[in-house]
Amino acid sequence: MPACYMLLRGFRYCSGDSNSAQIAETEPQRTYHIHLVVFTLGYQIIQLMASSQEIYLPAELEREIFEIAASAYPSCVVELVRVARRVQEWVSPELYRVLRAGEGRVVPPIYCSESDVGSPRTLDIPRLKNIGPHVQHILLQKWHVSEIQEILKYCPNVRNLALWIVRGSCLPLLPVLSTLSIRRLSFDPLLFFPSHHEYHIPFDQPLFWNITHLEIINAPSEWKSWHKIALMPKLSHLALSGELNQALLDDILENCTLMELLIVISETEEGMTNEQHDRRVVVLEPSWDYLDHWELGARGGDDFWIIAAKRAAESKFPASVEDIPRQA
């Protein structure tokens, strides 16, 4: 059925698998086009049914249609798994792409429900072994290092990791993190490298080699603690919160040649110039619940990375200091 393959290709484009689609279209436009493709595909199938023609979809095409639908509409996965057993096998991993375990919400459940109220939580290891390979986004807040180690051991495909308010020494986590191909990391480096506070944070370690998006919590204010960040080979997006100053921002932009976006998350711009003259620098005042906001981004919504990128694109300033016109 060539028409179905053409529709699937259009569906894949509109659902965000194409970078050009994400750039060229706004979210409402993509949503509209997804609905249009789904409607057209359904209409063609109904026509075939009405003409008494035998309907046949190759298994790989049928699977890809359901997987794209589950990815485009995560809220519908619970309904999709009820269509057929084979569909359940195809789309149920989408239920476990995001693991959030912090205050107020734990999804999916990862500890034993038999634990008594008030008693120490116990990780459900059989469940972790089952869902772990499907997990790609993890947020862990107020977990002990030993528990984090256990969770990460069963989640080898995590690409987006946030470790907030970790309990215990974080040094044992470094070998574990170095085995993962993390693309996005949110953490407080001084919890992981306390002895480097007065000197430098070792951003040249293997755990940083694949990171493109880095969020630093409680960022140190002096460049001497930061200078090895220029050795991160893929870093293009950096978000900072803490006691920052203009000199630090200037040093980062000057030394990190791949930097596309530098986000300052702060309720005050004290220590910085009133107006930034490099559109790569975006100052955001946090008005969100941090855990909900992180989950929104992990599920494809507009998090602060997207918000800042849109602001940078709309900025009237050049992309770098060198591009600023100078008077003769």
Instruction: Kindly report the spatial arrangement of strands forming the biggest sheet.
Output: 2-1-3-4-5-6-7-8-9
Instruction: Report the portion of residues in β strands.
Output: 5-15%
Structural class of the helices, strands and pairings?
alpha/beta
Number of strands: 9
Distance between the ends? 65 Å
Tally the helices: what do you get? 13
Q: Secondary-structure element order, as H and E? A: HHHHHHEEHEHEHEHEEHEEHH
Main beta-sheet strand count, sense and barrel state:
9 strands, mixed
Write down the overall geometry.
globular
Percent helix? 25-40%
Compact overview of the structure:
By secondary structure, the protein is an alpha/beta fold.
Strand-helix topology:
Elements: H1 2-17, H2 19-24, H3 27-50, H4 59-72, H5 77-80, H6 85-91, E1 98-102, E2 105-107, H7 125-131, E3 137-141, H8 145-153, E4 160-164, H9 173-178, E5 184-187, H10 189-192, E6 213-219, E7 237-242, H11 246-255, E8 261-265, E9 281-284, H12 290-298, H13 304-314
Parallel strand pairs: 1-3, 3-4, 4-5, 5-6, 6-7, 7-8, 8-9
Antiparallel strand pairs: 1-2
